[in-house]
């Protein structure tokens, strides 16, 4: 983002940069002061937390860094000041250790504040603002980090680290050329699809399990729909079986909300992986997904009895076994789709998409988005995506009845069937 002419003119003035650095140093000092006050309110011992100074101290640290940098372009004076600051904070930390206090946050932020001057002179203004905002966020994230530390599963961190290794190291090594005649795409594009879907799924999982725990069933359904509306339907329907009518209705609405999120999740995948499909899918998916979610919100207000939230499964969608299994299914769907198109043409593809809707539709949808099917038009491929989404609603309606019970979830199944019929109708119209 480029600065406006007026801002560029102001930033060229030494006095204006000095005022900005002083202001950000003072604001950072105020945040440090509030952070220390929160520690004193929460502490269980009578020993106060030691501080290297007040808000004025951090203001003068920022001024010192700015002045030293401007006075000596060769940075000798600035580096000498940096060394003196390190010595000061080293002595301060030694004194903290004598008082059985080990936190190093204040010295680190002091060094960051010392760099405000060079950052403003060498980088755009937005970088200094970003540095300040990040510092403030870290200072105020103590309750959140403590909660995550207490609740997060260590094994999930290991799994995430392995996944990041595969995504950051293996993905660039994948060949971006077609390696098998029956495979209508490249290994690189296959893994891009796996990484994209897994990342979206993991986002919904993290939001549900760690950042928004203990919320309503409706929130559970919405977040569960981000990574698997089918799995969410199974879990919520199982919980509703044998419960009171109000609880069953609330859980049924959460199932519908999860299906609404399925449409939005598919739109996100399309926008990331193949925007050519957006023209045919944006309007209907927004209408159907948004309509389903709006219906659940309006129906939720009519419920007089609240229900406790449920967890839509505790399985981490980023487990490596799941990722490799999905990659295998993705490749299988690519080959199967190409064979069906070769033997039966577009009608065979529409029949296949309807049948796939009674399984996990994600590998099939990604095979359509990332595959290269020259003999088939874009509209026919988009219609297959829509039809698969529509028939998947029938599968979830069946799960809701069989697992949750006819009496408990018949209205939920009816809504899902209506969604399925409307989606299928548009998909068939698109294919004709």
How would you portray this structure in words?
The chain is built from 18 helices and no strands. It has 432 residues and is an all-alpha fold. It folds into two domains: 5-146, no CATH class; 153-431, no CATH class. Helix 2 crosses helix 6 (116-122). 38% of the residues are buried.
Beta content: under 5%
The number of distinct β-strands equals 0
Uncertain ranges? none
How many separate domains? 2
From the N-terminal CA to the C-terminal CA, the straight-line distance is 46 Å
- As a percent range, the share of helical residues equals over 70%
- From the helix content, strand content and strand pairing, which structural class follows? mainly alpha
Listing every helix as H and every strand as E from the N terminus to the C terminus, the arrangement reads HHHHHHHHHHHHHHHHHH
* Dominant shape: elongated
Helical segment count? 18
Task: Tag the structure with descriptive keywords.
mainly alpha; 2 domains; 432 residues; 18 helices; 0% strand; elongated
Strands, helices and their partners?
Elements: H1 5-11, H2 14-42, H3 55-71, H4 76-98, H5 105-114, H6 116-122, H7 125-140, H8 142-151, H9 154-173, H10 187-211, H11 217-227, H12 229-240, H13 245-273, H14 278-302, H15 320-356, H16 362-370, H17 378-404, H18 406-431
Helix pairs in contact: 2-3, 2-5, 2-6, 2-7, 3-4, 3-5, 9-10, 10-11, 10-13, 10-15, 10-16, 11-12, 11-13, 12-13, 12-17, 13-14, 13-16, 13-17, 13-18, 14-18, 15-16, 15-17, 16-17, 17-18
How do you describe this structure in short?
With 432 residues, the chain is mainly alpha-helical. Helices cover 79% and strands 0% of the residues. The chain has helices at 5-11, 14-42, 55-71, 76-98, 105-114, 116-122, 125-140, 142-151, 154-173, 187-211, 217-227, 229-240, 245-273, 278-302, 320-356, 362-370, 378-404, 406-431.
